[in-house]
Amino acid sequence: MGDKGEILDIKIADIKATAPPFHHQSVDPTHALTKLKTADRFQELRQLLYAYEKTGYAFDDTVETPGTGLSAYLRTASYAPERARTAAREIDDLLAVGLFNDDIADDVDLLPHVNPPKGVGVEDCLRAVRQHLKRFPASPPAPRPAVRGPRSGRRSHGSGGHDSRH
């Protein structure tokens, strides 16, 4: 059966007849992807926590001032402020259920692990982040322009790439 080069004549009916559990338990890929996306409980929070990569995945925020990672996230969120609101709701959800609750352990495992400062808990860091996120929609920073003009001291045309000051 199935020697090299042999063509197997398998029909859908054969598969259905021999493996009913497989047929009945199979899932439409579109449905599976939709379910996966909706099952991603902390999708925006994960994006926020990835912003801490530049800090070596360490919280550097204070209650008064967002740190490097959160500031980077907020600059991005200034283009779509609903992202900050979504992240704040996800933090509220996470803190309400409990970071170490077995019911959400799989969801928490998907999050980047960001280290709190010595003597401070992750929950306290998330509360500080949440405070900044809650303030953000009221006064988001203006997005920085994507295109910058020529820098001073440099010629933009006619130098052929050479500095004429030499």
Which structural traits does this protein have?
166 residues, 46% helix, mainly alpha
Structure, described:
With 166 residues, the chain is mostly helical. The protein has a domain at 40-138. It has 8 helices and no strands.
Short description:
This protein has 166 residues and is mainly α. The chain has eight helices and no strands.
Chain-wise SSE layout:
Blueprint: H1 12-18, H2 20-25, H3 29-39, H4 43-50, H5 68-77, H6 82-97, H7 105-109, H8 122-135
Helix pairs in contact: 4-6, 6-8
Structure classification: mainly alpha
Please tell me the overall pLDDT: 78
Q: What summary fits the major beta sheet?
A: none
Gyration radius from CA atoms, angstroms: 26 Å
Q: Please count the helical segments.
A: 8
Q: Helix content range of the residues, please?
A: 40-55%
Low-confidence runs of at least 5 consecutive residues: 19-24
| Count of DSSP strands | 0
Distance between the termini: 80 Å
Helix and strand run: HHHHHHHH
Shape: globular
Strand content: under 5%
Multimerization status: single chain
